[in-house]
From TrEMBL:
<dbReference type="GO" id="GO:0036503">
    <property type="term" value="P:ERAD pathway"/>
</dbReference>
<dbReference type="Pfam" id="PF12937">
    <property type="entry name" value="F-box-like"/>
</dbReference>
<feature type="domain" description="F-box">
    <location>
        <begin position="46"/>
        <end position="93"/>
    </location>
</feature>
<feature type="region of interest" description="Disordered">
    <location>
        <begin position="1"/>
        <end position="25"/>
    </location>
</feature>
<dbReference type="GO" id="GO:0061630">
    <property type="term" value="F:ubiquitin protein ligase activity"/>
</dbReference>
<dbReference type="InterPro" id="IPR001810">
    <property type="entry name" value="F-box_dom"/>
</dbReference>
<dbReference type="InterPro" id="IPR008979">
    <property type="entry name" value="Galactose-bd-like_sf"/>
</dbReference>
<dbReference type="GO" id="GO:0005737">
    <property type="term" value="C:cytoplasm"/>
</dbReference>
<dbReference type="GO" id="GO:0019005">
    <property type="term" value="C:SCF ubiquitin ligase complex"/>
</dbReference>
<feature type="domain" description="FBA">
    <location>
        <begin position="114"/>
        <end position="291"/>
    </location>
</feature>
<keyword id="KW-0833">Ubl conjugation pathway</keyword>
<dbReference type="GO" id="GO:0031146">
    <property type="term" value="P:SCF-dependent proteasomal ubiquitin-dependent protein catabolic process"/>
</dbReference>
<protein>
    <submittedName>
        <fullName>Uncharacterized protein</fullName>
    </submittedName>
</protein>
<dbReference type="InterPro" id="IPR036047">
    <property type="entry name" value="F-box-like_dom_sf"/>
</dbReference>
<dbReference type="GO" id="GO:0006516">
    <property type="term" value="P:glycoprotein catabolic process"/>
</dbReference>
<dbReference type="Pfam" id="PF04300">
    <property type="entry name" value="FBA"/>
</dbReference>
<dbReference type="InterPro" id="IPR039752">
    <property type="entry name" value="F-box_only"/>
</dbReference>
Length: 295
């Protein structure tokens, strides 16, 4: 009896195992067949879709937002990536949107970078032309009868600029601190690209009073220590002048890594020590992040 039971157990075990293995094999075969059918259907569908010429693809991409083209379309396949990375694509996009170098003989080193920087380019200074009186500016020195905002005594070349800041008989200085990260220029971009930083300032004296103009623009690191500084000699105007509007410009290039802030300071004083506001006038100040071009 014992031997018979062992025999039944030993005979039953392999049969049960074989059935289980057969079931698994059959089940596995069914899953594989289903996957093969789905794969065949996908292949058939792909075969039905005709290849789209790259010229047509590029035309489509040129009509999509540039950021979407870079972040999404560029990842579709190798051909699309090469198309989006090509200089010709961004040169054509610039042409269609009227974005061209100021000097046509000096082409951009990187057309894609040139496109995005030009689209993003703007004046980073707030209230540059005294439209909101002194709002947005930190007063550093407020000598004499202090800073004021007045209408221009002489027309400005840009007829939209109608007001200016005016100094007095004591030194008047004001400044703004620009946080580049808050303006959309992160640390990695500033360190790797080091785009040109262009500053501009307009100033003028009164015809009947001598005056002095000064400016200082600093590129600062994270702790607000200077990395690069533009501080030309003070400009002196004698009494009885033609009240000319003059422009001060400078472009920071190859300034190195670490720039996180820009500090813009300007102002002046009258040299006759007259009560009132006979000192230097300043307006239409600007700080811009610009694309570089080939030299």
């Amino acid at each position: 009896m014992r031997r018979s039971r062992r025999s039944k157990v030993s005979n039953k075990g392999p049969m049960s195992y074989q059935k289980t293995r057969m079931g698994q094999s059959e089940s596995g075969h069914i899953h594989f067949a289903a996957r093969q059918q789905r794969s065949d259907k996908c292949t058939a569908l792909q075969a039905d879709v005709p290849d789209v010429p790259l010229a047509v693809v590029e035309e489509i991409l040129l009509n999509l937002p540039a950021h979407q083209v870079v972040r999404v379309c560029r990842l579709v396949c190798r051909e699309w990536k090469e198309l989006v990375d090509s200089a010709s694509h961004w040169r054509e996009r610039c042409r269609r949107e009227g974005i061209q170098p100021c000097d046509a003989s000096r082409t951009p080193e990187d057309w894609r970078l040139f496109y995005f920087l030009t689209k993003k380019q703007r004046n980073l200074l707030k209230n540059p032309s005294a439209d909101d009186d002194l709002q947005g500016w930190e007063i550093v020195c407020n000598g004499g009868n202090h800073w004021v905002a007045e209408m221009n005594r002489k027309p400005f070349s840009d007829d939209t600029v109608t007001k200016c800041f005016v100094t007095s008989y004591g030194l008047c200085l004001k400044r703004q601190l620009i946080d580049l990260k808050k303006e959309g220029y992160n640390a990695a971009f500033m360190d790797q690209v080091q785009p040109h930083i262009k500053i501009s300032d307009w100033y003028a004296p009164r015809f009947d009073c001598g005056s002095e103009y000064e400016i200082c623009v600093e590129l600062l690191d994270q702790k607000k220590n200077p990395i690069s500084t533009f501080q030309p000699e003070k400009v002196l105007f004698e009494q009885w002048n033609d009240e000319p509007w003059c422009q001060m410009t400078h472009v920071f290039k190859d300034y190195g890594r670490g720039v996180r802030f820009i500090r813009f300071t300007h102002g002046g004083v009258d040299t006759q020590y007259w009560a009132g506001h006979y000192g230097i006038r300043v307006t239409n100040s600007s700080v811009e992040i610009c694309p570089s071009v080939q030299r």
